[in-house]
Amino acid sequence: MSRVGVFICHCGENIAGTVDVAAVAKAALDMPGVVHAVEYKYMCSDPGQTMLKDAIKEKKLDGVVVAACSPRMHEPTFRRTAEEGGINPFQCEMANLREHCSWVHEKAPATTAKAVDLVRLQVEKVKRNLPLNPIRVPITKKALVLGGGIAGIQAALDIANAGNPVLLVEQSPSIGGHMSQLSETFPTLDCSQCILTPRMVEVARHPNITLYTYSELEKLEGFIGNFKATIRRKARKIDEKICNGCGVCQQKCPVKKIPDQFNEGLSNRPAIFVPFPQAVPNKPVIDVENCTYFKTGKCKACEKLCPTKAIRFDQEDQIEVHDVGAVVLATGYKTMPVSNFPEYGYGKFKDVIDGMKFERLASASGPTGGAIKRPSDGKEPQHVVFIACAGSRDRAKGVPYCSKICCMYTAKHAMLYQHKVHGGTATVFYMDVRAAGKNYDEFVRRAVEEDGVKYVRGRVSRVYEDNGQLVVKGVDTLLGGEQVEIRADMVVLATAVQAQDNAEELAQTLHVSYDPYKFFAEAHPKLRPVETNTAGIFLAGACQAPRDIPETVAQASGAAVKVCGLFSQPTLTREPIIAVVDRQAPPVFSNCVGCFLCKSACPYQAIEEEAIKNRNGDVIKTVAKVNPGLCQGCGTCVSTCRTKAIDLQGYSNEQIFAELMSI
Amino acid sequence: MAEPFEPKLTAFVCNWCTYAGADLTGTSRIKYQSNVRVIRLPCTGRIDFMMVLKAFSRGSDGVIISGCHPNDCHYTSGNYHARRRWMVFRDLLDFVGVDLNRVTFSWVSAAEGAKWAELVNETTNRVRELGPYKEVQQLAAVGIE
Amino acid sequence: MEALRNKAKELLAAGAVKVVIGYGQGTGDSRRPVFVHSADKVTDLVFDKACTQNLATYLTKSEVRAMGRMAIVAVPSTLRSILQLAAEKQLREENVVALAMIDGVMKDLSTFDAIEETVATVPDAISEADQKVIDKLMAMSSSERRAFWADELGRCVKCYACRSSCPMCYCERCTMDCNRPQWIPVASHAIGNLEYHVVRAMHLAGRCVQCGTCGAACPVGIPVHLLTFFAEGTVRRQFGQKGGASAKLDYAMSTFKPDDKEQFIR
Question: In chain A, which residue's Cα lies nearest the Cα of C85?
Fold first, then answer.
């Protein structure tokens, strides 16, 4: 006979203000199987939890219903309390009297009646709850970090320094990401590559980090602690082990006119190239789409001239499968292309550029050696207009959100311009200046007060070319909406930060959720910002939302510690909400008839075949068996099974039936 | 004077989307009618049509079934299987003369608190118009139950 | 028919099969299943237009399986049932040989591939008469349909003949037999009858070969086969998958397409 205890929480006035909690407690005591029913102001508080534990012991309860807030809020809390009180945690259920009752209905008898019904539902369910024990699963203590920008680098270093092996996979030929393209970083104006390259080298040298560049993730199977990652190591066409990075191949390659992606098209590169001089690894790669040999079968200059004979034209992509226990997603961002702005020239005006291009102009190791020059004629621009919020906060462009970093880098760009072109004028058209970080606002003030950058509050409706100059038509709202027209030599657009083009595909490969803008979804926007809803996959950096370098580094370290926390346990404890195929005594052995329709329905391939044999080794029948390590507890198999030989622990047929019978 | 008829609704919802969406309705303090009783399941894939039949024979006048939008299922494909099942079940119910106006299917995500309230209100009003599900309720009490 | 008897004799005499499941003379004009174990009894086997019952249900009974390798006189629907049973791992190729009777011609088929090929050549539509009744029902209003089924199912005595005669109802413990929990009442009940038949039709959706044996088996003449036909028809129309097409499992209700189209989900 059940001995269920019902604990009704007032939640201050949140529940008690609308629901007659005393009446609910009284009604609960009349429910069959309930031996104890009390109400209390705050069940989740320390005294509340102590009261729960004491009641379990004194009244010898074997089931507990806490009628309070949503189980999504406090089920883990009360399950732990119940366990401390001496019963199995899965014999504790919660009735949602707050989010589903007191907060959404008026104070009325019907509301209290609903509260009583909700309690009765859970009482009936908990009477059928069986004690469940957590499942222990072995963990592969190796992490996979996807993305070699600053986020991936930081996460990899933190995980590796904690003593765990890391596989860092980067799709371009070098790690470094967007940060390696930047000139100086706000608010300190540190040289970006100077602070980044030591980290890049550390990654390359670290004994615990295996670096795979020019590689991509093809498939991820398995589950937390037990992933199988299929990595495609694309062919560089170079034998990395014997290449010594001398660079002769790049100098002698006859194909010289390919726009250089790293320099945002401001310069050209050969078909065999290293992305930038500080690349890690400092080994070239052949761009097969533009290489003469791959297009026509001729040339082979690099092969002839390579002193170590490292060129391998017939090198193939290699597929490798790695066992890993956790994945950190650090795949970064892209910026909205200038071609997206008809009002600013569709990208056809050479001197209307985006922020990243400006970075390459300003960079000391860039195509102009750090001199600000117009892409059209190479002259120094005397008047530069910076347009903030180009695309961001604009529903018409499909980006209603703020890209966070642009106000800061626009101020930085304006300052750098003023430092390099002493007589020049810089004007920034802005909507708001968002400079919320440490020393950020002081930085923007410096731009205005010390470097003479002119800030105009208003948007730019149009930019067009006129006689070799650009005409910028905007408005100054602080002067009452006065029209402003500026003749500029260069216009820099702070274009919106967006998710990478392949973000959706990658998310689907990993079974990770994403938002309408294809940024990866965190498990909880406030309290779980580095985890995804897919156990074992963590987030770091701008692939989750636009963010600047300090936040990215912080988040990457946060993700790393989650991984280390996972790896610090000997085994992983999993929730036992899994499906189980029944087993009976001989001669039945199981109600399962071995049709395996469940197997084809399972999204996790968690159902296997089990041959039940007699003592001679002959197979009596083959039935289904659930792999407790793989099953995630969705229950699709249970509703597919005609004979109900498979059931879901925690949401069993008996439990649901009891709930329905109680309505 | 008999009390005006108040319909009894049973809702089968998935934990990750619709239950969370209903929680959001609560956190946002959006009010809706109190006739619905929610049965929490891990996924819409877990919903067996026998549960829907049982809800009706136990006295529900209307049933709501709701889960994650396609492509967003926490378990990747439970809602796709559920959708297929409902496509066949619904046609079959219609064939045997069950009033489909009493069954509502929907996708409500964890961010759609307002949609949940709207859904419950609209369904409650609709079922109230239809009246109690006499055809089932009168017969269900007869015999074994 | 002679060809059939000769083949049966041959198989039994050689010991290639231990039992031939076929049709025998029943009372009057009816036919009933016979189980022939020895070569001299093959005269018990008959075959004519009255032989319509889907005998495949016996392939799933443990008492029959225990006899050894089986041969079965197979009308087209029986062949489809064999394929569906194979897809659901209930039949092994080496344990069964089909003596297909198509348009009066006998063909013995001992591999699932051969059965698949044969089945692909036979048209697979429900009878005109049945289609007419379904169309008539769909033209009625919802409450008229309800009245029709209430009237029909009011006669149902829960004998479970429909279940026993169906080859796809081979579960050793039917969901009706499970009493923890008891989802649907076992005995005849005004609502329970409808629930039982609806559940059975749902369990068959995507697996039914539309043989109609369930309706023929009903002792009180309820057209229960219309329900399974309808459910199977819905699956075929909506998803393009069907029961009994192949020995490789392609079950509509455990697969899906991300863009399955429906209009009724808000």
Answer: A595
pTM for the model stands at 0.74
Give the per-residue pLDDT at B145: 45
Distance CA A540, CA A299 (A): 44
Residue A622: list chain C partners with CB under 8 A. Answer: 89
- Specify the amino acid at residue C96: V
> Containing domain of residue C238, as a range?
128-254
Q: Which residues of A touch B85 (CB under 8 A)?
A: 639
Residues C169 and C114 in one domain: no
Which residues, in sequence order, are bridge partners of residue A8?
A39, A67
Residues C138, C242 within the same domain: yes
Q: Does B86 touch chain A (CB under 8 A)?
A: no
The C-alpha atoms of residue A350 and residue A386 are separated, in whole angstroms, by 15
The Cα of C235 is separated from the nearest Cα of chain B by a number of Å equal to 7
Q: Are C45 and C133 members of one domain?
A: no
With CB atoms and an 8 Å threshold, state whether B38 touches A511.
no
Into how many domains does chain C fold? 2
> CATH number of A335-497: 3.50.50.60, 4.10.520.10, 1.10.10.10, 3.20.20.150?
3.50.50.60
Q: Determine, for residues C198 and B94 on separate chains, whether the beta-carbon distance falls below 8 Å.
A: no
d(CA A281, CA A213): 8
Cα–Cα distances in Å, from A660 out to A118, B7, B55? 11, 16, 6
The type of residue at B144 is: I
A-C contacts (CB, under 8 Å): 52
Give me the tens of pLDDT residue by residue for chain C, a chain 266 residues long. 889 999 999 999 999 999 999 999 999 889 999 999 999 999 999 999 899 999 999 999 989 989 999 999 999 999 999 999 999 999 999 999 999 999 889 999 999 999 999 999 998 888 899 999 999 999 999 999 999 999 999 999 999 999 999 999 999 999 999 888 999 989 898 899 999 999 999 999 999 999 999 999 999 999 999 999 999 999 999 999 998 999 999 999 999 888 888 888 98
| Contacts with C260 from chain B: Cβ below 8 Å | 80, 83-84, 87
Asked if A418 and A426 touch (Cβ cutoff 8 Å), the reply is: yes
